[in-house]
């Protein structure tokens, strides 16, 4: 080994050590993660609603004495659908009890028995299915926003500036996915006064 033994730690991944987090962040990481998740959620919807308002304002006709031609395109229900799917996916993912997703006795069957299926013991299977549905809604929202951007705003020849509507849609869905991940990690982290006691 080329490094001296005193500076080598086999648990380290990087050669350059990262500085430790400040004490405030280490003690309040759960609260900080929840606030950051809410900020990402609000920022995503704010960017999207900004584009919706710009589209709505461009559709208004000025008074009769001014010449006006309608805009080349405007935002419709197809622009709203990806964000609504992603928001629904975020709600589904973060309403699931994380303790139900763990391995409960090692049984994971589709029918009957003590651990799987839709019977009395199939809680873990249903929780995993709802988690899959939630992430599918999130991924569908993000894929739908890229599709709307491409099909509605990039492929047709439009005047400059209209691509902002599609970019805002993609930014909204990316922020919603980031918000979901932050909230998931924050809810999974132990709180400042939370202890795991086993008897």
TrEMBL record:
Record's keyword terms, sorted: Membrane, Transmembrane, Transmembrane helix
Gene Ontology CC entries for this record: membrane
First-listed, main subcellular location of the protein, grouped into a coarse class: membrane
Pfam families per record: UPF0220
Presence of the UniProt keyword Transmembrane in the record: yes
Transmembrane segments: 34-57, 77-96, 130-155, 167-185
Protein's membrane topology: Multi-pass membrane protein
Domain of life: Eukaryota
Subcellular localization: Membrane
Alphabetical list of InterPro entries matching this protein: UPF0220
Recorded family membership: Belongs to the UPF0220 family.
Name used for this protein in its record: UPF0220-domain-containing protein
């Amino acid at each position: 080994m080329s490094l001296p033994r005193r500076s080598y730690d086999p648990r380290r991944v990087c050669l350059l050590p990262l500085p430790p987090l400040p004490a405030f962040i280490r003690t309040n990481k759960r609260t900080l993660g929840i606030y950051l998740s809410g900020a990402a959620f609000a920022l995503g919807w704010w960017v999207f609603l900004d584009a919706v308002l710009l589209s709505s304002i461009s559709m208004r006709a000025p008074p009769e004495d001014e010449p006006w031609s309608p805009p080349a395109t405007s935002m419709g229900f197809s622009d709203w659908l990806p964000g609504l799917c992603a928001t629904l996916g975020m709600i589904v993912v973060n309403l699931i009890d994380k303790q139900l997703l763990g391995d409960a006795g090692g049984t994971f069957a589709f029918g009957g028995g003590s651990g799987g299926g839709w019977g009395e013991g199939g809680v873990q299977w249903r929780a995993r299915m709802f988690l899959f549905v939630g992430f599918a809604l999130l991924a569908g929202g993000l894929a739908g926003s890229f599709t709307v951007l491409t099909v509605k705003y990039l492929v047709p020849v439009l005047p400059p500036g209209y691509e902002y509507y599609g970019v805002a849609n993609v930014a909204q869905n990316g922020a919603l996915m980031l918000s979901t991940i932050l909230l998931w990690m924050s809810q999974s982290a132990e709180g400042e006064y939370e202890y795991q006691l086993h008897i």
